């Protein structure tokens, strides 16, 4: 099928980021001070604070409390995120803990009835629930308000802003405007950021594809590009989709300019470049149609095995999750498990479930079931760290512009109203 997953307009509409960065840092300091002053769960011991049930208690760029309320201990999920989890008997401990401490809750603590996709993900032990964000959304206030609600989203991915055509449109000339604007939103909100992407055959400027470079030259161009981009965002990115869409449907390697010129070793070379530029970011290989088991997923399994065998830096497999209502594979959990068994983490990185238009109540009900099943598959496997939807509202979906007559793939409609799919996600995490 004609597949070009992430093409969108690439308007540049943000002012230079240096002023914004300063502004964001000042705001961060102010909000930190506010946070420290209003911390929930102040314990009886003066001056000692603890995070509440399921609260964050450590990790890079975390300046809050590092201890947990009674009955909870601080668990390290990864260097970025430590969470207060029940010591034992989750239900009873949680109840006694909340009932004895309700009075000390501050207004900044989500009330016990708060709901949200990120809260649901967190309760299922996931690191984040996130959304892609493209630069046109940055000036849409109602859109940004929902995107910035951390009960809903604790992670962002720039839909286009860190792709090669955006970051190095001509050789050696780097532009950071779009990527930095998305980073600024994530920082302001305290959301994790996934970087996307270093080596991909699409949205690649023609100076790369049509340059007729020899092996050595293209290798250094690719390595320099990845080192420069990953280095620019060093320390600020949870994970990078270093390689994107390396496979054909039959599990063989796609014949991209990188593969044809450098050979299959382009993958380990670009992974090493990314690791050198940022030692802490998790390095992923990302692809579509590797949701369920099958030839393409087997290709990915074999690649991860060979990368592990040669000790290349590979930390994760990204399952894009561009799916179709009523056609969601039944083997998603088994597939996540086979990736996890290789010793990598797994994330669903670009989830959307499209339908043929017009929208009907039946299709929306099926879409809800489909979302629930995909989320449940991730919820059931501890190595699946989080789920990102490819934007959260149909208003900004890439689907209608690429698939004729199809659309409505996301949990909020064009008017930012929640659809049944939203409840499907919540139910999937609770299942
Ligand atoms: C490119 O060069 C590397 C060595 O630098 C070599 O291992 C690889 O096989 C070459 N690729 C092709 C397609 O000739």
UniProtKB/TrEMBL annotation:
Specify the pathway.
Answer: Glycan degradation; xylan degradation
List where in the cell it is found.
Answer: Secreted
| This protein's UniProt keywords | Carbohydrate metabolism, Glycosidase, Hydrolase, Polysaccharide degradation, Secreted, Signal, Xylan degradation
Quote the catalytic residue positions: 350 (nucleophile)
GO terms under biological process: xylan catabolic process
What GO cellular component entries does it have? extracellular region
Q: Where is this region: Disordered?
A: 92-116
- Pfam families xref list: CBM_1 (PF00734), Glyco_hydro_10 (PF00331)
Domain GH10: start-end pairs: 113-428
Q: What are the residue boundaries of the CBM1 domain, all occurrences included?
A: 49-85
Q: Is the Secreted keyword given for this protein? A: yes
**SMART domains per UniProt:** fCBD (SM00236), Glyco_10 (SM00633)
* Entry EC number(s): 3.2.1.8
What does it catalyze? Endohydrolysis of (1->4)-beta-D-xylosidic linkages in xylans
First-level EC class: hydrolase
Q: Which SUPFAM superfamilies does the entry link to? A: (Trans)glycosidases (SSF51445), Cellulose-binding domain (SSF57180)
> Does the UniProt entry include the keyword Secreted?
yes
The GO terms describing molecular function are:
cellulose binding; endo-1,4-beta-xylanase activity
UniProt record similarity statement: Belongs to the glycosyl hydrolase 10 (cellulase F) family.
The protein in question is named Beta-xylanase
